[in-house]
Sequence to fold (788 residues):
Amino acid sequence: MEFTFDWEDNKENIKKLNGIIEDHKDKKGALMSVLHEAQDLFGYLPIEVQRIISEGLKVPLAEVYGVITFYSQFTLIPRGKYQIGICLGTACYVRGAQELVDKVKKDLSIEVGGTTSDRKFSLQATRCIGACGLAPVMSVNDEVYGRLKAEDIPEILEKYKNM
Amino acid sequence: MITLDDLKTIKSNTLSRICLRSREDKANVESLYTKQVLLCRGTGCTSSKSDKIEDEFIRLLKEKNIDDKVDIVKTGCFGLCEAGPIVVVYPEGTFYSHIKVEDVETIVEEDLIKGNVVKDLLYKESISEDKIKAIDEVTFYKKQERVALRNCGLINPEDIDEYIAYDGYVGLYKALNEMTPENVIEAMKDSGLRGRGGGGFPTGLKWEFTAKAIGDKKYVLCNADEGDPGAFMDRSILEGDPHSVIEAMAIAGYAIGADEGYVYIRAEYPIAVQRLQVAIDQAKEKGLLGKNIFGTGFNFDMEIRLGAGAFVCGEETALIASIEGQRGMPRNKPPFPANKGLWDKPTLINNVETYANVPQIILKGSDWFKTLGTEKSPGTKVFALGGKINNTGLVEIPMGTTLREVIYDVGGGIPGGRKFKAIQTGGPSGGCITEENIDTPIDFESLNALGSMMGSGGMIVMDEDTCMVDIARFFLDFTVEESCGKCTPCREGTKRMLEILEKITDGKGELEDIEKLESLAETIKLSSLCGLGQTAPNPVLSTLNYFRDEYLAHVQEKRCPAGACQSLLQYFITEDCIGCTKCARNCPASCIDGKVKQRHVIDVEKCVKCGACVEACPVNAVIKK
Fold:
């Protein structure tokens, strides 16, 4: 799925990004910190943003891209308004988290790591979120749903579809 | 500049605030409050809305006009996550579990105002012979010994005064004023503390190497990149007692001659990151970090660096690369970080739990530490207990406790009367331990001898419904995803192993696949660059060792004995069928036959295993077997 970067919509954020770059420019090993803050701003790290960071920090674009693609937290496509995270830590897996993943994939017709075309939902398989007592666990943005069964999924999704 | 007297003043001023829940000094101090409500705000309980519960308490106390008499304290993890959200009321130590926002009013009315215990909300084990047991007397806590977790669930992690009231930063004072750096290292060596991140390398020795390394600048790092699926002790320590790590890093800095430290922590742990930042700011403000600490001329400063979700960054050389702003790829050792670490300077790296032990060792002495645990593995270890077990949560036990004690006494056994099958320790780098070895005392050597390892301390219990081949596949899937790709054995080898395991769980495995798996596993173990690859085959080797019959059943009989592998299961309609025809009408493959009001039958040859019939059946008569 292609998502285009809108320069006009992101004018303010780009100004902020330049400020962040300015703050970090002289710090050693600043790239990771800048990427974190940039992703908070834009929600993802498109090539346009990577170019600005590359020029600002004087780090080759290839290296910026290399770092982004290495870490699973950084993303090149926008995340949905509602970010679904299903914990695939061992405790959740043993208690049936895979069935939750399969159900969400089927119901939203997206793959893990994907975003629906209306940018409403995105799906991530997260590592242990530390709520093993509630396994298996799914989160939608900051809301955590524990002790889930695949049958519970449609009702939860329905709630967000209408929001 | 802060002095020892300042610490003492803070302690005595704070005691009136905390004495209700304090283990000591209860008799001599007058409490500022009549009751104190401790509320777990660790990740687990916060996920079950303990933040909303806190708001409700605050609102109601104000409304009832008792907010000056009753104190609400938010704490880190209590350990017993299964029972969350947890609320404990002091001075009695009344242990309420599974609290919902609606329950808050009852607790306020009955317990806080009228002084009656709300029996319906008690943790189920809190009453015996009609007597209410305090939190310390609950079986889950009885066999535990809390050193690294000593303040978790007891203090407000965002209040440095509470940490100081439990003798916090006195260890740092003692190190700086009464000990030379050599003394500190000697004490650490003598304590026998071994790295709690998994490897178990003697901590004092590591400190000594870094102290002796030549360099104009040295660094202290804290590895908080806990990536093991199913392990959350480091995060919980940072959430519940961040100052213990800060104090320890300052002590380490003094011992090795460093004035700067970094905590490398996952961005996925927002609560831990936030509390650690609060703690660092408070320590700086009090002069416990920064320049000329305790007037001794010792300077130490630290900051947080966020990881971005790469398991390999738990590997020390990869972690260093990541702090430097690069891809987190490991490199060959030697040179070890002790000699050539962050920006090529001598660098000390320990993990969170290791550091959490340090202030206590300095304060109470290495002899005290050695009274805990076993001779070769002194002290305690924190485990994250999960999977098919009643008391999921965080436990800290003295080394040498047996697995049986952990599973049955602390963990409360297997739910639903199911049978114990295996316990997996050490995460993706570890292996399974079966019933046969369940009486093994837990320490570094004995777990290694069983083909598993301590690892960071994840313990996942499995019962008869867990397929061991599928678990091996699950871990390999994780390794393949997390391999950094630098060396071929790990990048290509683990992928091939995963393919074979997928083939087997899909029911397409052949006998020679098992041989291939074994030979690949041995090669990858020997030839990988870093710990990730070297240990990646462990789950496969250990399940092959203990559960070869399950592999054989998948390969030879195309059957999954645990009934977990989808492709090997068949749908079946039981005698409960009422003949409503719903299943047949919903089946996309038209493979269900049967007359109205008679039991239906599935043609397994045609069945596509979509599960539509299971969803359609109103009486749960369709099962998988």
Q: What stands out?
A: The two ends of chain A are 24 Å apart (CA to CA). Chain A is about 45% helix and 10% strand.
